[in-house]
Design a protein that fits this description.
The structure holds two protein chains of two kinds.
Chain A: H1 6-23, H2 25-48
Chain B: H1 3-24, H2 26-37, E1 57-63, H3 70-78, E2 87-94, H4 100-110, E3 115-120, H5 127-139, E4 146-150, E5 155-156, H6 160-165, E6 173-182, H7 189-212, E7 222-226, H8 227-232, H9 244-254, E8 258-269, H10 275-295, H11 312-322, H12 324-341, H13 343-371, H14 373-378, H15 380-384, H16 388-399, H17 403-409, H18 418-429, H19 431-445, H20 451-462, H21 464-480
Helix pairs in contact in B: 1-12, 2-11, 2-13, 3-4, 7-13, 10-21, 12-13, 12-18, 12-19, 13-16, 16-20, 19-20, 19-21
Chain lengths: 49, 498
């Protein structure tokens, strides 16, 4: 049975940290969606005036 | 009856009808809640407890007449970026009548000690029975530390298994599931709709479920259990319902084990290309969910210290999907009766309902397509038209009052008569149920010579969401009639991208 090397373990930890960091992008994605929705609401108000 | 009593009765009726419409808005609120919680996954996730972990993994592949796909699946599995001496593949051949046994036996010779052919002489009892045949063999030996349950047609990204196993380093985690993406090489309108649905239901909803601590279902195509978890639920996948995946997920969580959705582990799956095939597949899923709801009837909305399945948030998410057609019918009924009683009030409530639907829809779609930009780019039309042209039109009518009168009719010198306006309002208020009928019609016309075009046009008009609702209604009827619940397999022909 192959035993994991230290290099593999380090690479795996690095990958976990990278994927965890990727999750922070959810905040930006939510913000983009929010800004677009807000923009549409503003446009609607301008249209209805 | 005196005038005062009639006024009281009118007030009571109005409150009741508004409550009907409010209930119809619950699924919209549930979607809003899920997408509001979703960004919290950036902070509340399992990565802090994930660690480097490479257990011995036994892969169980249930196979019934999978001759077209099984060789590619095995080849892909042995190429996974995972220590090969820690990976064994058990193909459980469910009494196949095609060349599946020969192909698997050839692969077993090619990969001795790694690929195994297990044969069930009596097949057709359902996926859970097939899986249990393999699980009992795997658990009989001490070798396996984790068991990966998958479908014969799915294709795992090379790094997906190692991205799943890292969560099992935490002993509190019982199982991990991956992101099953629609992966057909020859896409059509339906598979593109499914692609968007999977982004919403998995990359968005399951991340939210990670945050809330309760997972509704481990995807049947990719569920990695720890050995301890499978042994704790009796060493077998629960049988007796059409939703064996959901039952296993619930049973694991009821024993206090955590389930994790890993959004960065990608698995491609082949999905139905026709409405009829999708209907059959989803009817099985929907009936399974009805059975699960009944089976765990003492669980809902009863918080527990052991699991989060009884939480209010999880109940809201679960029932807003299960009862969506009922809530839609209630809203339509409420609006039409309000129209008869108080025209102005009905219009106000209608606009409020559809404006909230429009805001939530816009936010969720924009958010969702960013979660999987590849699917978002190739399926942007289906993302926009997910709720259908009809619903989009209603959203526009609600958001821009007077749109039809001033911008559609007035340029032609036409104006609504009283009866015409009444008919128009009734048609709009009844759109939800009408759209479900339209989805049902789309399935019917699909079999006609021009069905390929008609069904497609109909589906774009009524929306994919209405199709899923119509299937849910069918599941109620089939369950109520106790119709034949034998397991029928979705046909797979190996269309997944390599």
């Amino acid at each position: 049975m192959s035993e994991p090397t230290r290099a593999e373990a380090v690479a795996a930890q690095r990958e976990i940290r990278r994927d965890a960091r990727l999750e922070w992008r959810l905040l930006w994605k939510a913000l983009i969606a929010l800004v677009i929705v807000a923009g549409v609401v503003v446009l609607r108000e301008l249209f209805l005036r | 009856m005196s005038v005062e009593w009639l006024v009281v009765l009118d007030h009571v009726l109005v409150v009741l009808l508004i409550a009907f419409v409010a209930l119809g808005t619950v699924p919209v609120l549930a979607t809003a809640f899920q997408f509001a919680v979703l960004p919290l996954h950036s902070v509340i996730n399992h990565y802090k407890r994930a660690a480097f972990y490479r257990p011995n993994v036994a892969v169980i592949v249930p196979a019934w007449n999978e001759g077209l796909v099984i060789a590619a699946s095995i080849d892909r599995l042995v190429r996974l970026d995972y220590p090969q001496d820690r990976l064994r593949i058990y193909v459980v051949d469910d009494a196949s009548t095609d060349d599946t046994p020969d192909i698997v036996k050839a692969k077993a010779i090619e990969h001795p000690g790694q690929v195994f052919h297990l044969r069930r002489e009596k097949g057709g009892e359902g996926k859970a029975h097939t899986l249990n045949h393999g699980i009992s063999r795997v658990l009989a030996e001490p070798w396996a530390e984790a068991i990966l349950i998958m479908d014969a047609d799915v294709i795992f990204a090379l790094d997906s298994l190692r991205k799943m196993t890292r969560h099992l380093a935490d002993p509190k985690v019982g199982a991990v599931t991956a992101y099953i993406a629609e992966g057909s090489a020859d896409r059509n309108f339906l598979t593109r709709f499914i692609g968007i649905e999977y982004v919403m239901a998995q990359l968005a909803s399951r991340r939210t479920q990670n945050v809330l601590g309760a997972i509704a279902c481990l995807a049947g195509g990719a569920q990695l259990h720890s050995r301890e978890n499978l042994e704790a639920i009796g060493g077998r996948i629960p049988t007796g319902t059409l939703a064996e995946d959901t039952m296993a997920t619930f049973e694991s969580q009821l024993r206090g084990r955590r389930m994790v959705f890993e959004p960065h582990a990608l698995v491609l799956a082949e999905e139905p290309r026709t409405i009829d095939a999708l209907w059959k597949q989803r009817l099985r899923w929907a009936r399974g969910n009805v059975q699960v709801t009944k089976h765990y009837r003492r669980l809902w909305f009863r918080p527990s210290r052991v699991h989060r399945l009884g939480s209010l948030s999880f109940g809201l998410i679960w029932f807003s999907i299960l009862l969506l057609p009922v809530l839609m019918l209630l809203a339509a009924l409420g609006l039409v009766l309000l129209l008869l009683l108080h025209n102005d009030l009905a219009e106000f409530v209608f606009r409020l309902m559809w404006i909230s639907a429009a805001v939530v829809f816009l936010f969720s779609v924009i958010f969702a397509v960013q979660l999987d930009p590849r699917t978002g780019l190739r399926s942007w039309r289906e993302a926009i038209l997910f709720q259908g042209i009809g619903s989009l039109f209603l959203m526009l009518v609600a958001v821009f009052p007077g749109l039809v009168e001033h911008y559609v009719l007035a340029p032609f010198g036409v104006a609504f008569t009283d009866s015409g306006r009444f008919a128009w309002l009734v048609a709009m208020y009844l759109w939800g149920p009408v759209a479900m009928l339209g989805a049902w019609l789309a399935r019917l016309v699909e079999r006609t010579p021009v069905g390929w075009l008609l069904s497609r046009v109909l589906l774009y008009i009524v929306g994919y969401g209405s199709l899923l609702c119509a299937i849910t209604v069918d599941s109620y009827i089939k369950e109520w009639r106790r119709a034949d619940a034998s397991w029928s397999k979705t046909e797979k022909v190996g269309r997944v991208m390599g």
